[in-house]
Amino acid sequence: MCMYSANEGFVNDFHFFHYMQFAVRGAGLIMLEATAVLPEARITPGCLGIWKDEHIDGLQRIATAMKKCGAVAGIQLGHSGRLGSSIPLNRYTEGDSFKSGTSSGGWPDRVFGPSPVAFSSQFWTPKELNERQINEIQQAFVSAAVRADKAGFDVIDIHAAYGMLLNQFLSPTSNKRTDKYGGSFENRIRMLVEVADRVRQVWPQGKPIFVSLSILEGVDGGWTLDNTIRLAQLLSTKGVDMSELSMGGNSPDAKIPGGPAFKKEMASRVKQNLSNFLVASVGVASNGEHANRVLEDGCADAMFSGRQYLRNPSFALSAADELGVNVQWIDQYQCARPNLKYDTFF
Question: For labelling alongside 44, which of 85, 125, 193, 339 has CA 20 to 30 A away?
Fold first, then answer.
């Protein structure tokens, strides 16, 4: 989840301590927040970046430290598209708009999208990308993947959910193009498929690639569950190993049925239609029993959680204790493991 705490995309001490709190407390895979592949690919001026080699050292510090604690280090690569040049959510009460102008570090003249369709009146109206710019963005994803590998990350996640640029290309509500990147389903998915294909060519074969997708858009005429299934089937042939499945994010008018049960059902529908392709469910687990039930019922192959870890950085250890599972603790915290009776000696 975005922390909006970077300066010019660079990692700082906050990011290090933020991610390390999960690493020392049992998280199996830690995925860094949406990290911009270009300066204008940031959502806000405070978003992390990986658009130049100078960003590698700070990212490498985090990846190396996480892996020393036994965690798998992942990073999400993203482009904000029409959501760019925005203010952070925690500053929204300061005004009635999400727009970040040049005086507050924004880049309103460099907000791009598949079509000049704003997310809402509170966001900038994007300029339509031409094919040269589309190719440059694809190359930026490729270069970012190379830097992520140099920084020591084990996994990359291509962000095509929650209204980000690649999600905008997928949906007919935000993509009104009439060229090869718009119109038909095959054309609207072309941008993402080409990005995945090009990234797979430079990302080491022994390291997995994930793609984040929104299962459905929740508006009439928008992206649907059936679209997600068709796209995931194609991505599985392009070297993508797993998809994290969320909901909505590309329209302020989205109506998504509430509750974890619906998300669980939708993830299960996708998984049932795929073979040799992993599915992760996002945002449906508030405790260990719930997460375990999703996995045991065969609705997903993995569970991803964001806000729950912000509430409880020890969520993985708490869930293991709840389920009676013996998991590895880092050496420095061994005396705090439950049921070891260390209090006998101290």
Answer: 193
